[in-house]
Amino acid sequence: MSQPDEKGSFSTNIADDVINEALKSVEKAKAAVRGEGEPSVELEVEPPTSPATPSADTAELESLKAQLEVSMAKGRELMGKVKDEHEKMLRAVADLENYKKRAVKEKEEVQKFGSERLLKDFLPVVDNFDRALEHAGQSGDLESLKKGVAMIRKLFEDTLAKHGVKSFSSKGEPFDPNKHEAMSAAETDELPPNHVFSEYIRGFTLNDRLVRPALVVVSKAKSAEAPPASDAPTADEPKS
Questions:
Q1: Where does the chain show beta strands of DSSP type E?
Q2: How high is the pLDDT of residue 176?
Q3: Could you report the per-residue pLDDT of 85-115, keeping only the tens digit for each?
Q4: Assigned domain for 137 exists
């Protein structure tokens, strides 16, 4: 039997060692994957340095700042308008309050002095009454007094008409409940039934609106005449 070649045996031993080392390395790698064995060494890789130009975040920040400035400017403008409108509203409220006060004052003055013009127009009527009474006391002439009273009455009616007050006559007209008030009825042949036979007092209007209705007597047809009395003796009379 021949002796083994020393050179060949050395080469075989070297190959076995390499294989064993490789197998160990594989086992270690598997253990590292399963989380076993020695911790793996992590290498920190530094990020590449950014260039000197602004990044995308910086540009977005600048855009947001610009939008904020625009929004703030619009807000200041809107607040100015709101302030102006508020001041206008306050002035309008103050004007309304002043108007209400003036209206109340004017209403009170109208209630107190609204008839001043009417009274001034009627003062001459009172003066003429005074003159007529004075003249009647001095002379005692009833005819002159009558004429004076008639003139005063005419002045009084003219003054009323100046202020829109007019009287109306209803005698002979059909009875109208809108302007007449019936006080009684009278049988007559002079007028058809339901007509104004006579007046107690005249009616008056103010600018064509009824102020006082006329108090009137209304006509009606005469009733049938009673039959003549019979010549037959009554029960109390003796028979002939």
A1: 165-168, 180-187, 196-201, 203-206, 209-212, 214-220
A2: 94
A3: 999 999 999 999 999 999 998 888 887 887 7
A4: no
